[in-house]
Amino acid sequence: xxxxxxxxxxxxxxxxxxxxxxAANPLARLFDGFDDxxxxxxxxxxxxxxxxxxxxxxxxxxxxxxxxxxxxxxxxETATAATLRLRATGGGPLPSFAAGQYLSLTVRVGATVTSxxxxxxSSPAERDYYDLxxxxxxxxxxxxxxxxxxxxxxxxxxxxxxxxxxxxxLFHGDDxxxxxxxxGVAPAMSMxxxxxxxxxxxxxxxVYGSRRxxxxxxxxxxxxxxxxxxxxxxxxQVLSAPDPGWxxxxxxxxxxxxxxxxxxxxxxxxxxxGPPGRYPYLIEQLRALGQPRRRIRLEANSVxxxxxxxxxxxxxxxxxxxxxxxxxxxxxxxxxGRPLLDSLEENGVRPRASCRSGECALCRVRxxxxxxxxxxEARLRRSDQTFGHAHxxxxxxxxxxxxxx
Length: 405
Known about the structure:
This protein is of the alpha/beta class and 405 residues long. Helix content is 22%, strand content 28%.
């Protein structure tokens, strides 16, 4: 969508002193019943109940804003993939997570400090380390840098585990289908390990696509689970092209092959994790099989259709053209067709960021003037539109911008 934030100003809040603790946020005053909530918090404090600030402090200990992590092992998975095993710097247990969530690592590549989200492949039962399984990508800035340079002892900072690509037993059922490609098998691996470690009553049909037979991540472990625990895993491996000695399925993974391997979907929840550019095609194939869109879940760490491939991009507007961005007293030129977040980072401005796919909203910035184009993945909240915010990771500047971080 194209968003015009020229002249947008946040609504004023009522005068008066802020309430205690969590009520100090001026936005809280905009909600009906604000005074009643503050009064109730004060009543509980007078009665000796834990102060809300204490509850927030306890929550922060389990879900810290920043984690200091150290690589203790680099596990080679295939010729193009490796798993980084990270433990808490200084030792101790790590924050808990749900299978399917990810970490956003802060990484310095040359002069640029950026962040990238990587799915956790280890089991939630394991609290001493996180495993991040990374695959080499053509033109991949951060993934290739990590694979080429990281050795045991390397330190990183990260947000705590985050993400909604998780199994919900109330709505997703106990029989699911997972379509994975490349390193997209990482969250599936975490979910499988979760089932085995916790004895969960759940089964998965995993259709896993790879380029070559020698590039199948976790192949031995997956085949062992499928052989020893057919009640948990049905495994189908698919190659994108024939490979000498390969007797398994060969793509493309179209509706016919999905039906052949996964069987009748019958509204089973289907998870997609792989190159985002393949999602529109796979969704189309699943819909052709009668699968409702609400029963398809996506894990996205990037934009599927950047301009000008996105058909909603304004006609005649050159994505290679440059515009000027003004922020914090600085001005610099950036290309229209590059995500605003990437351009900010390259110029030394670092909003907080995590998913880089328009969902988490950590990277949102306030657009004071100018227009931006949001990729389809942008999950704009009503408050974002009310207060003039853009999700910088999936926002493209159409004209000169003035923004606030």
